[in-house]
Design goal:
Elements (H helix, E strand, L loop, with lengths): L7 E3 H21 L2 H15 L6 H13 L5 E3 H23 L3 H21 L3 H19 L3
Antiparallel strand pairs: 1-2
Helix pairs in contact: 1-2, 1-3, 1-5, 2-4, 4-5, 4-6
Length: 147
């Protein structure tokens, strides 16, 4: 199994990146900086597309390299799906903040902090579970349908 291909990602990078997501959202919500949230939207989109240009992921990889931690390969598709959900959440937070709905933005942002905390501290990826219960059954149905 080639663990460096596009079908796998590094669990340590994912978890450390989730930690940085927590920090960025907390700072943006505390100081009411919607454009910091917008940068996070683009970071999530980059990761959802599987591109290696995500500033948060690159920062995480650099720290992990300094610490000398080995890669822990995990299947990338559920993580990409979770990043897609993250981009939707952060876009919602951005739009709410931009339009003066600070309490609603805080609520959605706090939910994202909880989800990122589950990933970062406990290896629990709710987006990955949704992937298993939503995306995989749809893919199976499409693959097994008569052609």
């Amino acid at each position: 199994m080639d663990q460096s291909n596009k079908f796998y990602t590094d669990e340590n990078t994912v978890r450390l990146t989730a930690f940085f997501v927590i920090i960025v959202i907390a700072v943006a919500l505390f100081f009411k900086w919607p454009f910091l949230i917008l940068l996070l939207v683009f970071d999530f989109i980059i990761r959802a597309l599987g591109l290696s240009l995500s500033p948060l992921a690159l920062f995480s990889k650099a720290i992990l390299k300094i610490l000398g931690l080995k890669r822990k390969p995990i299947f990338a598709a559920p993580k990409k799906f979770a990043a897609t959900l993250g981009s939707v959440f952060t876009l919602l937070v951005f739009l709410l903040m931009l339009n003066g709905f600070d309490n609603s933005a805080f609520a959605v942002g706090f939910l994202l902090i909880i989800l990122a905390s589950l990933e970062s501290f406990f290896k629990v990826c709710l987006g990955c579970y949704l992937y298993q219960f939503i995306v995989i059954p749809i893919q199976n149905k499409l693959n097994n349908s008569p052609k």
